[in-house]
Design brief:
By secondary structure, the protein is an alpha+beta fold. About 15% of the residues lie in helices and about 20% in strands.
Length: about 290
Amino acid sequence: MEPMESRGRTGAWGLMLLLSALMLAGCAAPRQPAQRAPVVDRSPVPATTAATTPLPPGAENAGKPGYYTVRPGDTLIRIGLETGQNWRDIQAWNGLVNPNVIEVGQVLRVAPPEPVAVAAPAPEQGTAAQPVPMSNAQGRPLTESSTTTAAASPAPAAAPTRVPATEEIRFIWPANGPVIDAFDEARNKGVGIGGRAGDPVVAAADGRVVYAGAGLRGYGNLIILKHNNTYLTAYAHNQALLVREDQNVRQGQKIAEMGSSDTDRVKLHFEVRRQGKPVDPLNHLPRR
């Protein structure tokens, strides 16, 4: 039987051998790959193409002479009144199929298109070339000097603000009543003339009816007369209209009966428009 001391040594040596074997086994085991951080792509991200809102029709002409940008509440009738044109002409110049379909921001032509000059045919051999007559927007022949100027300046010039003497008109009073509303360019673009329902309303000058109806808010039953390329007159709040569109009328001709349509009392609202701009009718009517 081994002594207790000898067995204790043997046990200690065995424990040491076991620990050494475990350590060797740990050193021999393959290493696990170190865990890598996730890859982050920091290259610039291409900018996304922003959705572009299409421009309103005719936007390229905004601000040019002879063009008008549609505002909230506009109709072709109102635009015609503001620019001194027949709304049907504006419809035709812009190729509008439905005159009631226009959009805010749309740019409309409100002046007659410039006439297109047609090239003259080549002259036959031995004959002199004859000049081709040209005309301006009013249909008047251009002189040789004005033809040269027009060719040198392709861009249309702004309409002159000075009214030719031939365009000035002697107006007469459209109704016999007293003036009850004074002109105010910001709040009242004409004058109010009092009277009784059914009183005659007459044309202030010779002209052509470019509008007769109730399609312009705030005016009731309305007549608009175009007298020339400079002047329009408007007659509002009538109870009855006695003329139709495109009808020619004479100065003093009865065109309506006074009423209170779209207003709070019987009266005639009378406007004078000079190149579309409202002016004080009292400055154009004879003194009473």
